[in-house]
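FAQ: What does a ligand-bound record look like?

Like this one, built around alpha-L-arabinofuranose:
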Amino acid sequence: MEIKVVFDPDRVTGQRDERIYGHFIEHFHNQIYGGIFNPGSPLSDEHGFRTDVLEAWKRIRPPVVRWPGGCFVSAYHWKDGVGPERQPHFDKAWRVEDTNEFGTDEFIALCRKLGTAPYICTNAGTGTPEEMSDWVEYCNLRTEGKWAKLRMANGHAEPHNVTYWSIGNENYLPGEMGAKTPEEWGRFVRESAKMMKRVDPSIELFAASVADLDWNIHLLREAGPFLDWLSIHGYWDPLWQDNRLSDYETCMLYTTRIENQIQTTRHILGVMGYLGKIRVAFDEWNLRGWHHPNVNTATDPKDYIGTRDLNDLDDSYTMADALFSACFLNLCLKHSDLVGMANYAPSVNTRGLIRTHENGIVLRPAYHVFDMYVNGLGDRVIDSWIAGNPSLSVRHGEASADIPVLDCSATLAGDSGEVRLSLINRHPEKAVKLRLQSRDGREAVKSWISLAADSKDAYNDKDNPERVRPVPIDGTLRNGGPVIELAPHSVNIIGM
Ligand code: AHR
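The answer part, i.e. the structure of the complex:
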């Protein structure tokens, strides 16, 4: 049977929210200190930000950046991180001293340089509703009250105007500082939301959530009227303790395990009457879980701090990361009515899109997927499907599973009426020939960018920074009609 990718430019199924191309940075390892914010580096600007990082980051047009955590935030007191005198504090999440040199005002300065919207996640672990609402005062009130006046005294006469505020981070997890029961969480979120909205009713509120009915019944019953977003997280390769990365084929299996979280959350919102009122922010996602072994048990720093350097090994981030990220973003497009924000975790260093080293940066394969999607796909999602999609059998432990070889999404670009397709070939070795069939009869392939590489395990590093990069392909038609061949383990953006 001939394989066909069929799409209908006249059937718009959704409007892509650009915030699905969002970002997350945390006070963890060298994401901020020694990464983005490195005043001592000759590559940094007058404010201490790495200019090469800023330049690469701006190229993928970040719509929103979430900060400061993550687990870090659940014992972080923001007032320690503003003003001329910064007292170091002991970061109980990651068991290191944080100088507090990078705080709210530095984060806002970073966002201004990136031209992006700040998104602040507040401390619902050891923090209080008042500490959260004080933070909103500091950022968003013009002059009223002590916290707005403190911001002004710190040299920021104008409000920071932070729209996005999350109450808490993963407080459903027993290991999170300030973990709470569903009953406690619903009430706590309501009281925090009341305080924050009283300061600035225009803010958009998120609350830490998980695809679990009991958790969300209490959360939505108590605080649903105050919420705009449910924050859910996803890491599929569980590397926090053991840094044995899953192989390419297993990672392709993981691409079939993303949608269930979205669907479960959709059904919960539906049954609770909030579908269409509260949207999903997948505000931490990455194929790879971060590696931070023994974080709560080790006594020797080399066993729980030194091991974090393993996150920075560039050969960990291959075509598996690129294809997983593309499949994830395709699902965000498919569920564009519900998923309005997604934040890659993290953007710089650790498992990030960009890795910094002393003399420059490495753009990892998933960075190029963001570049291709942000700059290559359109904003209106149109109906598309794959006829005759072959399947690939992959082993996972003792079991095996059949997964679809191809994945696709289709969009319309701006007013041009041009269709922009994302076509993914998951197969580790085989190219796939397929016909592109448009319901309106168009046939010309106007553009084709492919991220393929010479191996499924290919990666970029300091010595070979462009082994994996997008390359234009001559859209020469074969067999007389729009029949194309997708390289193995490739992400392709095609314009028609
Ligand atoms: O592994 C990093 C952690 O993953 C983040 O701090 C937290 O939000 C998530 O559980």
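Follow-up question: can I read anything off the structure? Yes, for example: The domain at 17-376 is CATH 3.20.20.80 (TIM Barrel).
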